[in-house]
Amino acid sequence: MRNVAVVGAGMSPFGRLDALLYQEIGRPAVNDAIENAGIDRKLIESCYYGSCGGVGVGHEIMNECGMIGIPITRVVNACSAGSNAFRLAYMDIASGMSDCVMAMGIEKMKDVSMAVVGGGTRFQIEAKAFAHGSPMTGGGGGGGGGGMAAGFALMGRAHMKIYGTKVEDFANITVKSRRNGSKNPKAEFQNLMTLDEVLDDVMINDPLTRSQCCPRTDGAAAVVLMSEDFVKKHHVDTPIWVKGSAMGSNFGGANEKRWYEETGSPYPPGFLTDYLVAQKVYKMAKVGPKDFYDRGFVECHDCFSVSEYVHYEDFGFCKKGEGSAMINDGVVEIDGDLPINPSGGLLSVGHPLGATGTRQVAEIFWQMTKDKEVAKRQVPDKHLDLGLQHTLGSPGIGFTNVMHVFSRDL
Amino acid sequence: MRSIQESLITRLKVPTKIGNQIKVNKCSNCGNIRNPPRTYCNRCQGTDFTEVVFGPKGEITTYSSSYKRKATDKQRFFGNVRLFSDNGKDSMGVGGTFDVESIDKLEIGQKVELLPDERYNIFKLGED
After folding, report:
1. How many domains are contained in chain B?
2. How far is B96 from chain A (nearest CA, A)?
């Protein structure tokens, strides 16, 4: 396989953008990515874009950006749609098919139909009674199935029982998220929150209060990828290399499903698939969890506070049951031993399904190139050697876990 | 003669909820529990099954509370239950609601019993 680098990134403001057309959200992200890369847009040979709600919207955006005629592929893969678009763009170049590709993601959440999150609601707060089926599978029985928040709440409760985790431990993740989000001018939520404010917020599904659930956000993000040959040919001075790309899924037959079928409990309690995909991407990138402590940082899928918490454990950054020290002792702060979600993550930046993965890659690119975009939240130098990106799509319905490792060194 | 569409249906037209118990299929080849029952095993693709009856006894594996959009909305409590087969050899995870007035009444590991209801899995607290 050929070496592939990210060479530019762009992003629209994230938030409620009802008044805007898809083109009006996506065009600035695409054009900013091209400008950031410092290349002629005619170099871009193909485009993959994540969007769960908009059929053909990527084609419209690329047309508005003067790039119609190239292969354009829409990727629909729940919360990992953007990550999968990036992965396909990476594979397109790594395979030798193309030399310069755009990965983009866009979403207007009002157009996304996900029965499991109760579609049409501002927050992912639909938690109805279950009949057949289950909260983690979205079920659908007469009771309407459960919402995503419900599934993570159940996971949080199990974690509290098994490991003695406190509601404050989960809530502190939102406090940290808002602190980082306050330094991100494109985040949906830029307000600071205290621990008491998070705990006293509207209860969605116990123990998750509203501010521990990511908002349904509109937005777009785009990145430009290049082959090593093109990086040299076009004298790109700050390429960020893709060192690992891994993906996993799970529904029916795999261990995680079997565990659930037999116990009715989430994998104890976390995501076995996350663990397995992390092992795959570490192997490909020839790194381990400790390397990120020494010289890396992470953008991961914190759709709920509980989600980020269990990722600490599933990625191997700490043992099961030791995630509380990661958040309470400041390990995951921007200036901590292992910065996690310096952007503010999904909890503060927001979560347009198709755009989240490319937005995370954009954050990693900007951090590692010390771009002015992240000036207020710059991760310290010693942590800029490695970046880990992760999304978790449709947990319980048909996991789509995607992870990438990035490095400044080839 | 059956239509092509009918020939492709794999859902078994049998009542799976019988009173306060749930009847499902267990694959004779790999032991996979299939709920709701189908004509094939989704793990090994086998087609030989034995029937296994689960419930009414089980234990809570996790729980939470429903979101109240309006103050007048009924507060419900839901979660997952490990339901045991009547022969005690198997267990199966199911979701359901708990017939309690407060979340403080619930605890992981607590014994529960499935109530007779054709549509929903509703559990009452059992005796230890």
Report:
1. 1
2. 5
